[in-house]
Amino acid sequence: MISVNNLSLCVGAFHLKDLNLTINDREYFVILGPTGAGKTVLLECLAGLHRIRKGEIWIDGEEVTLVPPERRRIGYVPQDYALFPFLNVKENITFGLRKKNSEKNEAEKKASDLAHLLGIYHLMDRNVRTLSGGEKQRVALARALATSPKMLLLDEPMGSLDVRTAKYLRLELKRIHEELEITTVHVTHNLLEAEEMAGRMAILNMGRLEQVGTPEEIFFYPQSQVVSDFLGTPNILNCDECIPIGHGLVEAICGKMSIILPHRTGEIKKIALFPQDIYVSKSRPPGPDLNRFKGVVKEVVPFSSLMRLNIRVDDIDLLTELPKDIFEDMNIALGQEVYLILKLRSLKVY
Amino acid sequence: MIGGGVFKAAILSVLALLTLFMCGLILSLLAYTDLKTVSATLLSDEVLFAIRLSLITATIATLISMIVAIPVAYAISQTQFLGKSIVDTILDLPIVVSPIALGAALLVFFNTPLGTGIENRLIRFVFEVPGIILAQFTVINALAVRLLKSTFDSINPRYEQVGRTLGYSKMQVFYRVTLPLARNGLIAAAVLTWARAIGEFGATVTLAGAMKMKTETLPVAIFLNLATANVEKAVAVIFVLIAIATIALIILRKMTSAREHI
């Protein structure tokens, strides 16, 4: 278990303010926050890369606040992966093992096992400069896992990957976490990534922990305006019924709205729908009439560079967002009828 | 990109003028000698001595300079301490101060009680070969520190951080991660400082003197031959220096281009 007690730190422009946090054994814990929130600094504190003057860090019942990084038994994957360019893939993976005076054969076996686990065995003799972003990430992960660390620290691991590779690697990370059961702390600014990966998560903003809980607790019960604003104030639909309709699809009845979506377990209590994931159209969209609703604009509120529209669909008020220039082009007025299209892939169900 | 033709023509004209100037200098040397004279001069005892002495002293000065410059440059690049900018400025002085002034300062130092003590009890520098090495070291060390500092500055600190999390101490990370990452910069700094040491004259002649077949490095040989109006011999030695400098620059360019591909 990792415990952070009353941690305060100032590193350049980043400040951590009186943080208290507990991360359980074998947990997949995500630290979510906007850029500049201090997420990386917090991760670096766990790694022992900053001298802490106020507060304590405990790992497995042992205080490690002033223990240097080489004695913390952690695996660290920075955002840019930092693969050693003067070593090939195999040498990168075995780098930490060489320090541990592992037998060469033993180190190579471990590297080969990890390479198989992460699907990079065919890259073992490659120069790391020739690898793609996804390959680099997996090599960095293998290097971090090679020394059998007690915890794994991942700093924006999908930050420099394209959407498809990131999605694939999220699944891979989940599989590896389940297989190795290693306590993992994952830092990201991506809401979708956090929601998909986290067992529990923390929202960090301007060096302060705003809320800690399961994704469900945080999405449905944001405890402060900061969290609510950061998450984008999702529309929460309470569902009364969930009817399987075959082909892995269910029909969720939420009030007078009926939403068709892919779901396996067959029970949906709530659907979270972020304002940015609802398309607004003045004309009736073409195609089948699924997950499209007609509503009336009840309220228009400027919000930063966006316009927030409150649209009533039957008995439910839905909040949507449009960039100001698009809103002006569309010439939408109060009381006007509009069509809403739900972005199916962004629906979060609980 | 469209446009900018006049600007391009202007900068290329300046480039062409400078290249012509340098080529003109080299061609004018050829007018003073011929291949037969050059080869005969190069095989003379005096020039062979100067070549050998220059290579030995420059290599020793470069080795000492690198041993000192690596930790110094790393300290300036990676650590914060009180008075860092003052220390940095002091270490840079040999780059901007005339080598003759540095040589004179060394000469004055060896006339102080401490300097005389070193001369009498440890090693003689004034008008001796060790004086050449010390003069070269004093001039080139600032250059080595400057070049290595920019090399260490350019290394992403994440590499060292990852090395630490993989079980290596700060010292071990320096040897196992930082130095391999700085390899090309180290070689480039060594080549450049060595070439600078080979060509060093001002500090050398002031501290070690210009004594034929004793402290006669290649630049000193040029000076002595010009002083006795032996221009052909001086020109032959100049060609040796140009050849050494060209080889050094070719090695440097190869290192730099290899580095760009990282």
Fold topology:
The complex is a heterodimer of chains A (350) and B (262).
Chain A: E1 2-11, E2 14-23, E3 28-32, H1 39-47, E4 54-59, E5 62-63, E6 74-77, H2 89-99, H3 104-118, H4 133-146, E7 151-155, H5 163-180, E8 183-188, H6 191-197, E9 200-205, E10 208-213, H7 215-220, H8 225-231, E11 235-238, E12 241-246, E13 249-254, E14 257-262, E15 270-273, E16 278-281, E17 292-303, E18 306-313, E19 316-323, H9 324-330, E20 337-342, E21 348-349
Parallel strand pairs in A: 3-8, 3-9, 6-7, 7-8
Antiparallel strand pairs in A: 1-2, 1-4, 4-5, 9-10, 11-15, 12-13, 13-14, 15-21, 16-20, 17-18, 17-20, 18-19
Chain B: H1 5-30, H2 35-42, H3 45-78, H4 84-96, H5 99-109, H6 113-122, H7 129-153, H8 157-165, H9 170-181, H10 183-198, H11 202-207, H12 218-227, H13 231-260
Walkthrough of the structure:
The complex is a heterodimer of chains A (350) and B (262). Chain A is α+β, with helices and mostly antiparallel strands and 350 residues long. Chain A folds into two domains: 230 residues, P-loop containing nucleotide triphosphate hydrolases (Rossmann fold); 114 residues, Beta Barrel (OB fold (Dihydrolipoamide Acetyltransferase, E2P)), CATH 2.40.50. Chain A is built from nine helices and 21 strands. In chain A, α3 packs across α4. The mean pLDDT of chain A is 87. Chain B is mostly helical and 262 residues long. Chain B has one domain: MetI-like (MetI-like fold, Orthogonal Bundle). Chain B is 80% helix and 0% strand. Chain B contains 13 helices and no strands. In chain B, α3 runs parallel beside α7. Chain B starts with a helix and ends with a helix. At the A-B interface, β6 and α2 of A face α8 and α9 of B.
